[in-house]
């Protein structure tokens, strides 16, 4: 599915957006009042012409004092009849870019297994909005959503590699993949041990784009399905584990976004995806095992269901060996992050105040909320067990997202700056512009912040 705007046309019907309590456009006459139109959020009043045809429409935005409850107001307008529409006027307090992006995101449908893409209403891009940029951003988000929504039966580590190669071909990037026992031969022991019990071999996908400029490396967790390993998840917790590669999906979406908007120009981009399936078999890794990571630190496995940080650790070490200017990890890592901030607001961790401020402010500006959490040094002893350097699953359950971030930071030494995002990657209930299912988080915030961070 490709997001799109309608071509500019005098035949496009006018659409007025009004807040509750605002004056109704004079062109509408008395029809909205007679129809019971109250400008509730998403309420649409179709306006007839003198011959019984369609002359335009008014859509309610709800109470303007509650505007922050919706990120993408115009996504609700997909309930309009089929045809081309244009905004007759922009109401106060709304960003035209956000309105237009909301329209594009509202077009998304996952139809791989049911239904087919259908032509609904189309919107002429508002004046002053960079249509090509927004289409590129929305197309990248669609890629992320499609990948997360695809079940592991059709998106194991091998198929995730295929998706990465297809994107690389599309944007002119280079790909190298280290697979199976080659991971051991080239010193990626923890990626191998987590994925060795699965039918599809574990692998490290390495994508590069650009030759000059500051280096940005993005590491995305690619656990294509997570049974929990021998610490087997209960069925209720396993139901959404096709989304445990949401970090990888977001990393690929961000790469597509950077390339499609031109933001990749003048950067050296690298995306690393450790792609595995955490399965149960006779050769699965066990609770109590002690692993030696790529950087030489030993890790005691106290829960095989804390596997994401293990595969990320080897990938982060490898990435840091090139001393990138900025390294970012994206991972559906902890339930603790959801308990703290819910599904909408992923925490991120960064020791550099300037970078962290740029990220959080950019997220607020573009409707991609993120929230800074601390790399809290006094918790370091919690990830240091008695018999190894590190513990992959500290007991007690306290500060689970922070301790996971501290674990990852041990493998990020060498990067100029490091930021970790603990995302959810899933929309549990439909909202404007965000149907239930896979969703990208953090990518648009990163895109908007990069000029300030690396400029």
Number of domains: 2
Low-confidence stretches: none
Instruction: Give the mean pLDDT.
Output: 96
Instruction: Identify the CATH architecture of the largest domain.
Output: 3-Layer(aba) Sandwich
Please bin the fraction of helical residues.
25-40%
Q: What is the CATH superfamily label of the largest domain?
A: Zn peptidases
Largest sheet: 9 strands, mixed
The DSSP helix count reads: 13
**Could you please say which CATH topology of the largest domain applies here?**
Aminopeptidase
Binned strand content: 15-25%
According to DSSP, the number of beta strands is: 19
Structure description:
The chain has two domains: 13-107, Leucine Aminopeptidase, subunit E, domain 1 (3-Layer(aba) Sandwich); 135-454, Aminopeptidase (3-Layer(aba) Sandwich), CATH 3.40.630.10. Helix content is 29%, strand content 20%. It has 13 helices and 19 strands. The longest helix is centred in the first third of the chain and has 19 residues, at 131-149. The two termini are 33 Å apart. The mean pLDDT is 96.
